[in-house]
Specification:
Elements: H1 11-28, H2 32-38, H3 43-52, H4 70-83, H5 85-93, H6 98-105, H7 108-120, E1 125-127, E2 143-147, E3 150-161, E4 168-176, E5 182-191, E6 198-203, E7 214-225, E8 229-230, H8 239-245, H9 247-275, E9 277-278, E10 281-282, H10 287-312, H11 324-348, H12 360-367, H13 377-389
Parallel strand pairs: 1-4, 2-4
Antiparallel strand pairs: 2-3, 3-7, 4-5, 5-8, 6-7, 9-10
Helix pairs in contact: 1-4, 4-5, 4-9, 5-9, 9-10, 9-11, 9-12, 10-11, 11-12, 11-13
The structure holds flavin-adenine dinucleotide.
Flavin-adenine dinucleotide binds next to strand 1, strand 3 and helix 13.
Length: 411
Amino acid sequence: MVAAMDSGFSQDQIALRDRARAFARDVAGPRAAAIDRDAQYPWDIVEALKEAGFLGMTMPGILGGQDRSFLDTVLVIEEMAKCCTVTARIVVETNMGAISTVMRYGSETQKELAARLVLEGDKPAICITEPEAGSDAMAMTTRADKRGDVYVINGKKHWITGAGVSRMHLIFARVFDEHGEDLGIGAFLAIRGEGKGLRIGKREETMGLRGMPEGEIIFEDLEVPANMAVLPPSGLRRGFADLMNAYNSQRVGAGTVAMGIAAGALDHALDWTKTREQFGRPIGEFQGVQWMLADMQVQLTAARLMLHAAARSRGLDNSAFPDPMLAAQAKIFASESAVRIVNDALQIFGARGYSRELPLERMVRDVRMFTIGGGTAQVLRTLVASRMLGWKLPQTRDGHMPKPPMRDAAE
Ligand SMILES: Cc1cc2nc3c(=O)[nH]c(=O)nc-3n(C[C@H](O)[C@H](O)[C@H](O)COP(=O)(O)OP(=O)(O)OC[C@H]3O[C@@H](n4cnc5c(N)ncnc54)[C@H](O)[C@@H]3O)c2cc1C
């Protein structure tokens, strides 16, 4: 195994990382092939993560969390991803993303509810993407209509991680007041299994990450109490940008999963180059293979450093979340490098790499997702360029975000 750099880490962080490494090696790793084969969400691993204290680490101590930083969490995620990608994603989503949004912008009631669920083992779902609103998330048509003390939500989301296993759902919807005025996009907390109106639709047949369900979620007159609207201080008009700010932590988390898979694949490949012999010599003695290893290591180190820098950073408004520019760059570089590294690791195993008896083919399938989910590598480049130029770069032809058609008030 190539030693990771320890510089800049506290004793506590090194101890945390070592604990995660042992968990990944002894508990998660041995389950990874079966989780992939059976395509079942690993409740046993969730229970073990809970026991080991890897859920809700970033939540405040007063709510049962550990007040840990995103960097602490990133150290854990890399170790998990080396051995089992689904386990790593559970750690991401119980420490970053929807839970971070609620911890930052939620009311005390919402925070207590979310913290309790996560500590019980729930992986919150974040519901943004719709069939006609992917990269163009602002085009979402799921709507929340205010009616007295409740919001009534109707619409359909797809590719929602955790569909059918998550209890807590952070639902993004276009909000309308009682007069039908469009107030902008807001987020709502809903708990699956409490009341009617939240239905799980088709599960996707995914190429990788098969233990983590991805699927449709349909809202049919789902009633959410008004006090479950998650409102950033800027209100609804600017609220979507604030709510999405929380996604910067998720991006760092997702990039770290990709980087961790790459680190694990490189470890396997390096061992193999020392033992596999052809032409009477270990294949690691061939310069063609040495340069592949070196290129893999260079990309891995650069990705790790970018992710750590992003995890340590704070946004321009000194918000609780990583800087968007650093988070986007780290996710682009880590995800694209990881796809190359894992692919090259498989190549180094020759035909054996193509066999399902080794984990390389699973790692290739798993890593492929990370240039897509959580903002594609292309859309994140637009974010980076927009910051560089200091211009807004609306992607619609007329330079404006279209508003969805108003619904007839009498409907
Ligand atoms: C495994 C997985 C898990 C996911 N989990 C969740 C989840 O939990 N919650 C959730 O809400 N969503 C989730 N998603 C959805 C994900 O966020 C979207 O897939 C992503 O935002 C892209 O949307 P799309 O798939 O509709 O692609 P599209 O937006 O249709 O894009 C298609 C292609 O066009 C490119 N493109 C689009 N617009 C531009 C542009 N302006 N400039 C340049 N290129 C562009 C894209 O980069 C892409 O290559 C998940 C997706 C995956 C694969």
